[in-house]
Write a structure and sequence with these properties.
Strand content: under 5%
Distance between the termini: 6 Å
Mean pLDDT: 88
Structural class: mainly alpha
Largest sheet: none
Order of helices and strands: HHHHHHHH
Radius of gyration: 19 Å
Helix content: 55-70%
Shape: globular
């Protein structure tokens, strides 16, 4: 055996590819560390700016945003993945990583489709830098990390439904909070713009999009697992040195 730490179950095929893209590779750990630090720095900058007079959101509003939650958790996970070998992490780590990759991909899509000002190009440096990190860079890195880095933990068919639980809770929380204090994290959730009928339709469309994208992310993860040769759900094969 080489000095490379194994995954929770060893790869059975495409050894060169899986070794090159192993999560313990220094270059992958470096990318994860750099991205995680950038994400946390962006959130810290947004938190500081939220304390300044005239800012568009205050601290409670900032901490109520889907983008803030998903970037915070994934940023921390990237840092943990950068300092700990994959074999030292639990088997559910890949499922949580997939959920966060899914949430970040949806963050990028929703920002581009529903939140960004009309005519704003997909990639521009003329943007508040924390938003560049949390809405553009982090979703791309999260998606590529999920698609490319070697994995051996296959997800069950119901995994996208489990991933959908948090967006559903967030949607309900946002409407309850908005009804109490009048603030909604995104205009498409605000019934003042078109009434509750339009908001509910948009909410249903967003959840349907979440389910479709979540299913695609789930399938992509299982394809990546298949490239390592692992087929059994939640069952590790014995490793031979």
């Amino acid at each position: 055996m080489s000095g490379m730490s194994t995954l929770n179950s060893p790869t059975q095929r495409n050894h060169g590819l899986n070794d090159a893209l192993h999560p313990d590779r220094p270059w992958i750990r470096l990318i994860r560390a750099a991205t995680g630090l950038a994400m946390l720095a962006a959130l810290a900058q947004e938190t500081y700016d939220a304390t300044q007079p005239g800012n568009s959101v205050d601290i409670p509003q900032l901490f109520s945003q889907f983008t803030f939650h998903s970037n915070l958790v994934l940023g921390l996970m990237f840092l943990v993945s950068a300092v700990r070998r994959r074999a030292q992490l639990p088997r559910w780590w890949d499922h949580l990583s997939g959920a966060l990759a899914f949430y970040l991909v949806m963050t990028g899509i929703i920002y581009a489709v529903l939140v960004a000002p009309p005519g704003e190009p997909w990639w521009t440096l003329n943007l508040y830098w924390p938003w560049m990190v949390t809405h553009r860079i982090a979703p791309v890195v999260a998606g590529l990390d999920w698609l490319l880095v070697t994995r051996t933990v296959r997800g069950p068919w119901w995994r996208p439904l489990a991933w959908l639980a948090y967006p559903v809770v967030f949607l309900a929380f946002s409407w309850v909070r908005g009804a109490l204090d009048g603030w909604y994290p995104y205009d498409f959730l605000n019934p003042r713009f078109g009434g509750w009928g339009a908001v509910l339709v948009t909410g249903a469309e967003v959840l349907a999009a979440f389910l479709v994208v979540g299913t695609l992310v789930h399938l992509a993860g299982n394809v990546r697992v298949a490239l390592s040769g692992e087929r059994a759900v939640g069952r590790a094969r014995p490793h031979r040195a």
